[in-house]
Single-stranded DNA-binding protein (Streptomyces kanamyceticus), 150 residues
Amino acid sequence: MNETMVTVVGNVATTPVYRELPTGPVARFRLAVPTRKYDRVQNTWSDGHTNFFTVWAWRALGTNVQGSVSVGEPVIVQGRLRVRDEERGGQHWTSADIEAVVVGHDLSRGTAAFRRVLKANPALTEPALREPALREPAAERDGEPSPVGR
């Protein structure tokens, strides 16, 4: 299958909008990707054109984006690029969307604290499947010293 996969580094430009749809959860936000160039003559950086992408994150990724990403944060997005041309109200619009596969904070510009999401599994709540309590060796329970202490 020929799909255009892209990796884009930029800043979150809008608050993620989260929706529960019949097909599953989705989060959408705008990503600003500025162009910066170094001017060796003036020894300074200058900003150029800024591209904007609408990022769509589906299912678990959408849920995690909604709880992890805020306006202004630097992120890296990898996914499928979709360019759309539309006519609305007599005007021609072109938009670039990214159907995200991966979204993460850009750690070259700051730090993040990762928290693994635990999926709800009723079997894990049964007492037998919980972490076993620490017990003393059987020999010590019977009044004999443990071989570990010898």
Notes: The chain has a mean pLDDT of 86. The chain is about 10% helix and 50% strand. Residues 59-68 form the longest helix (10 residues). The radius of gyration is 25 Å.
